[in-house]
């Protein structure tokens, strides 16, 4: 009788062990992107720098397993990572143009059981840089070209600083957020129509240095019906 009970118990243990062996850990890596305009997207990215990416391992079936994670960051055509992170989830800001491949290596152990996973790469592709400044604007309150700022086709600018001067070299305004600009005022009052001067110092994700100097014309007489003032 005791032998029969022992056999039944052994069979139960084998059945449970076999069932547990079928429940193995898995990972489903994904990434959430916040771009330079604070827009959020999910999945592989191809666009302008800088971007901040949060990578999630999304493991399943890991109860009772010892976990190990290794995020490997490489650039296109390279095999040696330029960065390795060891958290389950990790965040990184990309500022260099080119294609970045991010692969998750995960290792799970449970006694003598070992499960190793290498994921398909997630890709972050950052464009080469571009920056242009307009030669005029019309701060007349009509909602069109009221702010002097970088042209909207800029891309992959990771450092930016701009200064506005009058014809006598007096600094009227400065800003360091590429999405901001000058409203044509000094000390809260409109400056006169005429020619001013902008100096921009910037750096692209591809390492390109910008040192832009040009005239800025204030043309408050421009309206939507008469044309825009910043197309050149």
UniProtKB/TrEMBL annotation:
Keyword Nucleotidyltransferase (UniProt): no
InterPro entries, per database record: PKD_dom_sf, T9SS_type_B
Signal peptide range: 1-21
Keywords on record: Signal
NCBIfam families on file: Bac_Flav_CTERM (TIGR04131)
Protein name, per record: Gliding motility-associated C-terminal domain-containing protein
């Amino acid at each position: 009788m005791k032998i029969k009970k022992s056999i039944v118990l052994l069979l139960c243990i084998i059945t449970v062990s076999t069932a547990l062996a079928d429940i193995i850990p898995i990972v489903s890596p994904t990434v959430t992107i916040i771009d330079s305009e604070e827009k959020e997207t999910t999945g592989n990215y191809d666009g302008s720098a800088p971007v901040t990416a949060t990578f999630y391992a999304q493991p399943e079936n890991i109860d009772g397993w010892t976990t190990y994670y290794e995020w490997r960051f490489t650039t296109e055509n390279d095999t040696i990572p330029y960065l390795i992170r060891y958290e389950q989830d990790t965040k990184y800001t990309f500022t260099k143009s080119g294609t970045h491949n991010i692969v998750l290596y995960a290792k799970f152990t449970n006694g003598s059981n070992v499960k190793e996973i290498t994921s398909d790469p997630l890709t972050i592709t950052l464009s080469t840089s571009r920056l242009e400044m307009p030669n005029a604007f019309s701060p007349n309150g009509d909602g069109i070209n009221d702010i002097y700022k970088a042209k909207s086709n800029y891309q992959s600018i990771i450092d930016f600083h701009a200064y506005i001067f009058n014809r006598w070299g007096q600094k009227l305004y400065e800003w360091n957020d590429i999405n901001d600009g000058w409203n044509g005022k000094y000390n809260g009052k409109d400056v006169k129509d005429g020619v001013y001067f902008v100096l921009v110092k910037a750096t692209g994700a591809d390492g390109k240095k910008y040192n832009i100097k040009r005239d800025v014309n204030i043309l408050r007489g421009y309206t939507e019906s008469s044309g825009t003032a910043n197309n050149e």
